[in-house]
Design a protein that fits this description.
The protein has a single domain, classed as Alpha-D-Glucose-1,6-Bisphosphate, Chain A, domain 4 (2-Layer Sandwich). Helices cover 28% and strands 36% of the residues. The protein has three helices and seven strands. It has a seven-stranded antiparallel beta sheet. A hairpin with a 4-residue loop joins strand 6 and strand 7. The longest helix has 22 residues. The chain starts with 5 loop residues before the first strand and ends with a helix.
Amino acid sequence: MTPTGLTKDAGWEIGVSRTFPVRRDRAWAVLTSDEGVAVWLGPGSRLPTEVGEGYETADGATGELRSLRPLDRVRLTWQPAGRLSPTIVQVVIRGDDTKTSVRIHQDHLADADERGRQRAHWQATLERLAPLLQR
């Protein structure tokens, strides 16, 4: 039996989501703003706008943009300082004029322990985003 969170193609993965009482366009504007990006990607970072463009956070995480679909999703690599290989992080929004769900998915994690740590990390990230999204 395969453990929860372990996939054949992407290794260990995690997904967390939360629904906010905001319009989809407002959620997108917040998530892609400098203030929003600092919360979910990391302090000191700027969201790349061109596929293949890199970024670096104040704490040394690096990566590059894989895809960007306005009002839909951002997909990028994410490699914290000291990690030997990157993971893939995807932020997806779904919503309408009254509420929007923000989902963060990460795959290519090393093991169940890293999966647990990242699950807690992304849940805390959604908590920190809440005040920005509900202003």
